[in-house]
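INTERNAL AUDIT FORM
Audit reference: QA-55
Scope: verify that the stored structure record matches its stored sequence.
Auditor: D.O.
Record contents follow.
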Amino acid sequence: MSTAKKDYKRITVKTLVDMKQQGEKIAMLTAYDYTMAKIVDRAGIDIILVGDSASNVMAGHETTLPITLDQMIYHASSVVRAIERSLVVVDLPFGSYQSDAKEALRSAIRIMKESGAHAVKMEGGQEIKDSIKKILNAGIPVMGHLGLTPQSIYKFGTYSVRAKEEEEAQKLKEDALFIEKMGCFALVLEKVPAQLAKEVAQSISIPVIGIGAGGDVDGQVLVTHDMLGMTHEFSPRFLRRYLDLFTDMSGAFSQYIDDVKSSDFPNESEQY
C-alpha cells in the first residue's frame, strides 16, 4: 500500500477513512490548552484528542474518573480556538454517557455546542450501544475506544495489557465490528496484543488508531506530555520519548533562579 502523504488542508472524519484506504498512517496526539494545541496543530498532526487524561496530566488525579463534563468543555474550548487543520475529538468523561442514552446525548451536544469540537470519543462496545446510537442519530461523529478502557480501571484493577485470553479477544473483535456497523468513524485500541490489533484493523473499514497496540494498525496516538518527556516517571513499553523536557525545563528553571538571585537577570538590555 502507498505511504505517500497527501496534503490535506483540513482534516475531517471523511479524510481519515480516505487515509486508511490510501494506506497513509494517521497521527494523533493529545492537547488540553490553547498554547500546546497551537503548536501541535501547526506541526501537522491529523487528530488532536482532548482526552480525559487531562484528569491525570493537568489536574494530578490518579485516574481519569474525577474530571467533569464542564472541565472537559473548558479544555476543549481552549484547544478549538487554536486549531486550523486538525480534527478535534473530545472524550466524553466518566458518568456522562454509560447508563442513560438521553444523558449521553445531552453530554455530547454540550461538548459540540459549547466547545466547537468536531467529534466525541466513548469507551466501550455493545454495552453502550443505546448511547452511541442516540449520539450518532443527532449527527455527532463518534470515535470508539476498546481494549484497556481507563474509565473502567476499578473493574480491571490494573493497567496491564487487555484481551490476551481468547474470550476477551473474541469479544473485542465483535465489539469492533459492532462499532463499525453502528456508524462510528474510527476506533482507538489501547494496550492489546499487536497481532489482535492487526486482525481488528484488517477486519473493519474504519481507521484503527493504536496506543500500545503495535504497528499494524492505521494510526498511533500518544499523550503529548508523555512523548515530550514531561511526565518522566511514566515509562510504559509503548511510549517513545521524542524530547526530555523534564530535564530541559528543570535546568531552565534552575538557571532562572540563579540569575535572579545573583542579580544577573534582568541585565541592561532587558529593561526600559
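Auditor finding: record pair retrieved intact. Residues 246-272 form one domain.
Action required: none
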